[in-house]
């Protein structure tokens, strides 16, 4: 058994690598830091191959797929992603495009390429890491929220296509709330509510994906929040989200 994990050097991705290795999976890990990847390669109990890539670069998703395509991958975890905080007009456009390349473009490419292989073999699991933000609009993190909405809608659509085709391939969607990772440091904000443990979120996501479940929202409070948001008018929900995000300013 072999799993590919993007964004594997810290946070949820690192904890997923640890857990899948404990479950007996050989791993192919990618992230930007060669040093951190090498440390994980030495520390994990199963076979680990590494490839340092920046998925914001145009060729990087294709390089990762080419590295993996002949290695009988069973599980793809699209975990890499980050956010940028600020009003839409003030966020640097180049920074934003790099973020969208990681959050949307790389995930889209890898999902498509691996899904084609999985469907030919009629087995395989894809876990796309989104966020509870994927069900909302999010002022002050507008592009991040929008990118996670893309991941949510894409994954839901693929799930239905696979169901209609009676395929044994599964696709799952992990949508946590705040998690104690490096996300806030990179976005330049602080938590406005207690964060979840990345270890617990990672294990919840992997367990659900291996069971073929579609929507995975760890934490009863987050699940209730996502459910309740369906009944709130869009303008009101945007105003509420703005007030929540404003509290994150450092």
Task: Itemize the secondary structure elements and their pairings.
Elements: E1 2-5, H1 11-22, E2 26-31, H2 34-43, E3 48-52, H3 60-68, E4 75-78, H4 93-121, E5 125-129, H5 142-164, E6 170-174, H6 183-187, H7 198-210, E7 215-216, H8 220-229, H9 234-246
Parallel strand pairs: 1-2, 1-4, 2-3, 4-5, 5-6, 6-7
Helix pairs in contact: 1-7, 3-4, 4-5
Protein name: Short-chain dehydrogenases of various substrate specificities
Family: Belongs to the short-chain dehydrogenases/reductases (SDR) family.
GO molecular function, one term: oxidoreductase activity
What does this structure look like?
- The protein has nine helices and seven strands.
- It has 250 residues and is of the alpha/beta class.
- It has a single domain (2-246), classed as Rossmann fold (3-Layer(aba) Sandwich).
- α1 (11-22) crosses α7 (198-210), α3 runs parallel beside α4 and α4 runs parallel beside α5.
- The longest helix is centred in the middle third of the chain and has 29 residues, at 93-121.
- The mean pLDDT is 90.
- Keywords: Oxidoreductase.
